[in-house]
Design a protein that fits this description.
It contains nine helices and 17 strands. By secondary structure, it is of the alpha/beta class. It is globular.
Amino acid sequence: MAESKLIRLDTGARDLREIGIGILGYGFMGKMHSTAYIKMPFQTGWAPAKPKLVAMCGRNEQKVREVALRYGYQGYYTRWQDLVNDPNIEVFDNSGPDYLHCDPCVAAAQAKKHVICEKPLAVTADEAKRMALAARKAGVKSLCGFNYRFIPAVRLARQLIEEGAIGRISSFNGKYLQEWGHDPATPLENVWYTAGKRTGVMLGIGCHLLDLARHLMGEVTAVTGTVRTFNTRRRNRAGVEEEITADELDAGILEFESGALGIIESSAISTGRKNFLTFEISGSKGSIVFNLEDLNHLKVYTAGDADKDIPGFRNVSVTEFHHPFAEMAWAPGHIVGWETAIIHELFHFVDCLAKDRPVGPDAATFDDGYKVQYLMEALKESSKLGKKLNVEYGL
């Protein structure tokens, strides 16, 4: 039998532009973003550009070195200023803690780096506004990490709304529920919204709900909010009791430009709930329902097509070839996972850089991140004052 010879490929045949990536943060989101950059060429086929993992940054040298090695970065820094100043980095990806979002991102924008920042954009609306204005002034592209926009079922929901499939919309009813702090005996270090410099449930998960409301329903014109902290004191692991001021349960009413109303709730004391984000949008011709814990499906009801004998919602598996992001999926019925939305999101950003096209409205920009930050502060202020507040972004 004749020996088969290896047919060599010309690996330089595709002259792909490389985009240097620098990530601040080696924790959960730093690892998740790194994984997305690595998977992107395999999940998306021929990418418009190739992410190049240049450097990771973190204050703990042992940990950042370990994670940078694991994901194949060329090197690491222990000061974010050095990451910003690296000439090989084109995209500054801030996956660090919330309190470290503002200054590094502003500096990166001023250094003409395109900027990605995980949600929430900042700790305060003033900081978020600084970030948005810095990106505008520098003329760089920005992305705020509201990755749930890139779940296929959420994108389909948006398409149905834009096509008028459910008619004139009257309401948005959304919840984001977790159980982390439901037990008063849980040490405060084990409760994410009270640990360290964390500042509450609305900043941590409620921001996702507000972004989806704006993304799907349009602009908000007024808010009424109520904020509660039930476990006002917790013991740390050493047994010392500390005062807790972080919000644990938030509820709000949103008024939209369209005249529709939104009712939202975010909680981390909902016993039994792990990561339950759901919304229902009702219109004159139909309704849609989404649940993050069943993220491959969208429940759809259209009155005109309903079977009179067995009326009800259809449970649509959003995995067909004609559905959103089908080009990045495996095959109909082969479901995607939570992390897929981040791959879609970061691919979108890389694609926008390579083709020099706008990041929004499909993805959230720093402008969107600021508006969500403003709404969170408005809801808290409304709760404090006990009255409805009009929305005036001033951006």
